[in-house]
Amino acid sequence: MAQDYSANWEDYFSYYEIVDIHSSGNRVFAAAKNSVFSYNPVTGEAIKFSTINGLAGENVSAIHFSSTSNVLVVGYETGLINVYNFSTGNTLQVIDITERQTISPANRRINDFFEVNGQLLISTNYGISEFNLSNLEFGDTFYIGNAGSQLGVNEIVVFNEVIYAATQGGSVRYADLNNPNLIDFNQWQQVSNLGNVRNISVFNNEVVAVGNGQRLYEINPNSANQIINLNGNVNDLLVKDNTLYVVYNSLVRGYNTSFNIIYNFGSNLDFTPRFLSIGVIDDRVFVGDANRGLLYTSQSNANFQYVSPQGPLRNSIFQMQAIPNELWTVFGDYNIFFNPYAGGGLKSFGASHLINDEWVNIPFEEINANNLVNIAINPRNVDQVFLSSFNDGLVEIQDNEVVNLYNEENSPIEEMIDGQGNIEPNDTRVNGIAFDRNGTLWGNVARVVNGLFSLSPGSGNFNVFDVSEVIPNNTYYTDNFGFTDIVIDNSGNLYYGSYGSGVVAFQPSTNTFARLIGNESQGNLPDNYVTNVALDNNNQLWIGTVRGLRVLFNPTGIFTNSNTQAQEIIILDDDGVAQELLANISISDIEVDGNNNKWIATESGAFYLSSNGQETLYNFTTENSPLPSNTVTDIEVDGSSGRVYFGTPQGIVAFNGTATSAQDSFENVRAFPNPVRPNYSGMVTIDGLMENANVKITDIEGNLVYEEVSQGGSIQWDTRAFGKHKVASGVYMVLIISEDQLETKVTKIMIIR
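Above: the chain's sequence. Below: its structure in token form.
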């Protein structure tokens, strides 16, 4: 059984890429790439099922709801199957197919489910498997290819006690449903060759299938008769109430029993559709689109509405940025060589903005900039947001609307130069962007001489800075392909990573560049490819590279001391042996929370470290959390709530953390949970604190049981007397004093054992 994480986690997946639909009773179930939701058209209620409920978070390929067993069955491209039981709320992970060594990973894909007599017939890329819904166990597997070979099955239908299988290149194969020896490939017959058969169904008391050249055929034993030419790529087929619905890329048609068209949908849409699936309840038609989600219309009305749950535009998260009660995310990309064209070309996906738990999505058509890779929110005007494009420059957004696109035509931001010294036209690669305390925006640009710029948003004035002073020209275009995120300290000094030039630093007050580079004899970096940097609450610079982690305890020293070295963090493993923390692990992101603890994003999940890195508080992976992928691309912390967002290639989940940012007063101090009841075994959090507040906890008689100085806006207490025995039932006083001792606060915690 998979774990339910709904108590401490939330999902923020995209529900706009619908890959499969199953309708049953008054509900339609829609698979949205890595999660599922149900929609009731009568009540308008949408219910989500995701990794929070124990689903796997992998790419969904097929779904089925069994009304007799009251379970939702979810199949994945990997062959994994989840069974969600509505009666118990439990989710079962069925791993039998994924562990079959005789089946290649590509052939394990689940293509479709068909329920008959309490059994699921599962169409896969290797053949057919039986799954019993009453005991949730597998039965026989049928390899129906020539001589018993593996043959992919796209879809199954049962008619007059005969199983018909639409196969991948093997026409339609059929056999008697009640034959006790179906595992014998000789029991399966083949209809005259139709090649690849994508869809099969029963219509007007005949088995019909889509075969050769997207033609519709009537299937008889040993023969197939063409009925009509469908004239288009067919993605789905559904029969409901004497109507045959055919889903094309951009159109849905309904045919009556005479094969006359009686229903058309998709000709007057305000977007270019990519329909993949369909479901019908009474006269209500639900169409799944690959980009716009679940659309709902009716046979009598061509109007439609979007009914997918709110979410970001996509699940492929590249970068996020959080401020109190808001989150921005973009979906661009580049590979390890900072090539935005790798992996299928430029990403044209727009941006998404979560504000007060409502999503505002800005499509690519409005932004008109490819490969958005970074975000900077103006702290003086949070409605003004800048997005960097690793191809088209810098986008300015005000109140969720695009107001400017800065590029080589209207700003000093330059087009990139290739390895031979030639200008690449219309290719302006801005990446790291950040605001300083004075409200000036800073940004770096890949593969240009003036690789750093500043922008005053009020005046629109730019300044550019020649980075060849710190990265020589003779290596810049051939060895350094790009820069990463920028962080800015309280003095206005900038720090950012690079492809092969270590940490780059710039001091605006002296107009001076500096660099931290090299191994033990130089800057003591594990690798000169620095992926990200972060400044903690003590102004220490944490440095992530493709091969590990370092800390620069006095980052400003980089401008005056050419021998500055970063330090590794040495910890003791379970056997008491000293070792380097996160050695040889590629670091995707480092975030600092309100308690000065560190969140580290890696390809092995997310690590939560104590402020000095000596203690690993959490290591979230797909095994012990609802992370949909162990590859974590970005982490963001909402300092007001303590919520931690994890961005992955498979979507966003959020952990309801407790570390909040420091406050200006003790006005909002609280302790929770309060009271602490007998069945609670977690930590008690006291938040709303000022920086470096002294917190003393005493019993009612004044005996001190715990004391701590806050490093952010909160502390946690394990309800033990200085880490020893658990304190007894009773009321405990919390005495709080500010660092300057000018402000005090008293609150109470009741503990019931």
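Helices lie at 364-367, 473-479.
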